[in-house]
Amino acid sequence: MHPYRTHTCNDLRAEHAGQTVKLSGWIFRKRDHGGILFIDLRDHYGQTQVVVHPSRSFFEELTHIKLESVATFVGRVTLRDAATANPEIPSGAVEMVADACEVQSVSEQTPLYLAGEEDIAEEVRLKYRFLDLRRASLHQNILLRSQVIAHLRRQMTAQGFNEFQTPILTCSSPEGARDYLVPSRVHPGKFYALPQAPQLFKQLLMVAGFDRYFQIAPCFRDEDARADRSPGEFYQLDMEMSFVTQDEVFRVVEEVLYSTFTTFSKLAVDAAPWRRIPYREAMLKYGSDKPDLRIPFEMCDVTGIFRDSGFNAFAGAIKTGAVVRAIPVKGIKNQPRSFFDKLVEHAKSLGSKGLAYLIWDGDTIKGPIQKFLKPAELSALAGTGSMQDGDVMFFVCDEPGKAARISGDIRGKLGRDLGLIEKGVFRFCWIVDFPMYELDPETSAVAFSHNPFSMPQGGMEALEKTPPLDILAYQYDVVCNGVELSSGAIRNHRPDIMFKAFALAGYPQEEVEAKFSGLLNAFRYGAPPHGGIAPGVDRIVMLLAGAENIREVIAFPMNQKAQDLMMGAPSSVTEKQLRELHIQLRSQPKPPPQA
RNA sequence: GGGGACGUGGCGCAAUUGGUUAGCGCACCGGACUGUCGAUCCGGAAGUUGCGGGUUCGAACCCCGUCGUCCUCGCCA
């Protein structure tokens, strides 16, 4: 007989009755009746009830053993009668009556109780992650992640992609987020950087002629955390293709993501092709470049209606460049006054001067700003938002960027607070036609708005003839339920167009040459037109798991301050290590807090 | 760096808003119990209310500072 087990804790069924088997696992729960002891033995696969009679030599030891100890049992599989069977668990038709027991490993009292369902402070969960990972929900999430990644690999391979590895120690990139740096021992004063993404390497693989690249790629960015953004590292399904148009990239991603979401979720998934929303339309209708299409109302611009109105707070602001965005919501006229007051306060906390609204009530229109508006203006608003009895229209007036941000936030809050978010669906869309340039709000100079290496739509001709702020890029995002799943672009593979694009943003050719010599060099020896995208694996799994927080789908995440509470990273290093790396600290680290 | 919420035995929460010895559930320890499956019943131990200072006859509660966690803005080409 195997030293540890003949079956897992989820194998035994009625047909095994009468067999002598061996099981190993964790002691999940105990029910001690004095004259009989029930143990729920748990492993990765499930759980099985083990019955221990007091005549057994190990009975006394087991009545006192701590939960989460690991033990091996030998015993006979016994059919449970109708009264004692447990239909709640798959192995509930049978139980094992123990004849022998070997304790493999005793547990101390665990700092979190694994058999309960109470919330546990995240600090404790992270410090004892190996225990938290035993709990069913997190255990299943990590398993789901494993299966999703295996599925992504199969999908990509089936579509003719090859998987590559790219360096983890590379060089610091001048654009983008802050880098994680690694000091060089051999080269005093020089540093490697962990890649923010394998962007340059995958483009170089295209130049090398590999045609279709993918990688489940670790990406490292030294940025502050969010609920959907783990600090330190995250994973992307990174892909790149040669000789493709934007539409071909879309088809690949639609096929892979549709297959993944329908395979691993029971929710409805938008069929391809997904809606394409130009960036400017998204900012107007949703106030965001990652709109949640489950919310059943969209914003509209009503600047023209307020421009010459008697509502001076808006009319005056419009003269200095402000716009007015309206948020029409159906059937909420009976919300209490406090609802509207709280929403006004919320708008102010976002930096808005206020939040105006009108309520359509029967034949009349009510609300704080009604008295400032002429009947023609009111009816124009009613027409714009198709307003009917019971509907309410909110108004945000500010400079365009701020108006979009504030109205977009309020749209989301209304959707959540009123329970209007469509349930049980994954709503996908593409955000396309990102502007190549925008005005730097501080210097008013033309600057890249997103990725400087994207191909401008219209190529060199557009750069030469179109006003910079009107030039669009072949750049695109995939958005699902308000979560940005990935960002990609058709790349600029032509040095001449690249120099021109950078020149418009104020970079002289010598500087571009100095900063991006590796890529430019490669493009001088015959570069194929190419493009790609990189869906975020963590966010995909988070959506599929229905998790509110990305740490729920990462086995060993760091906390918000980028610390690993279990391993104690980051940590101090010895003076000897620092000396070898030619590093002298500028200031002494603070002593650890007493708390 | 800014804003918000929170911090009470191992874990999750409470304490009539400044008033007796800081309670409850789970876990833990001891006992009882031969069919439970979140077993039940009886008993017990376990707290410098994150830390430091202040106000007060009296502070978990109010004030100041500080540390920590999460959410968020900035940031994320």
User: What class would the helix/strand composition place it in?
Assistant: alpha+beta
| Gap from first CA to last CA | 52 Å
Low-confidence stretches: 589-595
Radius of gyration: 30 Å
Into which percent range does the helicity of residues fall? Answer: 25-40%
* Beta-strand percentage range: 15-25%
Mean pLDDT: 92
Secondary structure: number of strands: 24
Strand order of the largest sheet: 6-9-10-24-23-22-19-12
**Overall 3D geometry?**
globular
| Count of individual helical segments | 18
Helix-strand layout with pairing:
Blueprint lengths: L19 E13 L4 E7 L2 E7 L6 H6 L5 E10 L14 E12 L16 H6 L1 H4 L3 H23 L3 E2 L17 E3 L7 E3 L5 H9 L4 E10 L10 E11 L3 H19 L3 E2 L5 E4 H7 L14 E2 L1 H5 L4 H8 L3 E7 L7 H13 L6 E6 L2 E3 L8 H10 L7 E7 L1 H18 L7 E2 L1 E5 L4 E3 L6 E3 L10 H7 L9 E6 L2 E8 L4 H10 L4 H7 L1 H7 L6 E4 L3 H9 L29 H6 L15
The chain binds one RNA strand of 77 nucleotides through strand 1, strand 2 and helix 2.
Characterise the protein shown here.
An 8-stranded mixed sheet has the order 6-9-10-24-23-22-19-12, sandwiched between helices. Strands 1-2-3-5-4 form a 5-stranded mixed beta barrel. It has a 5-stranded antiparallel sheet with strand order 13-14-17-15-16. Helix 4 packs across helix 17 (537-545) and helix 13 packs parallel to helix 14 (495-504). It is 29% helix and 24% strand. The two termini are 52 Å apart. The model is unreliable at 589-595 (pLDDT under 50). By secondary structure, it is of the alpha+beta class. The chain binds one RNA strand of 77 nucleotides through strand 1, strand 2 and helix 2.
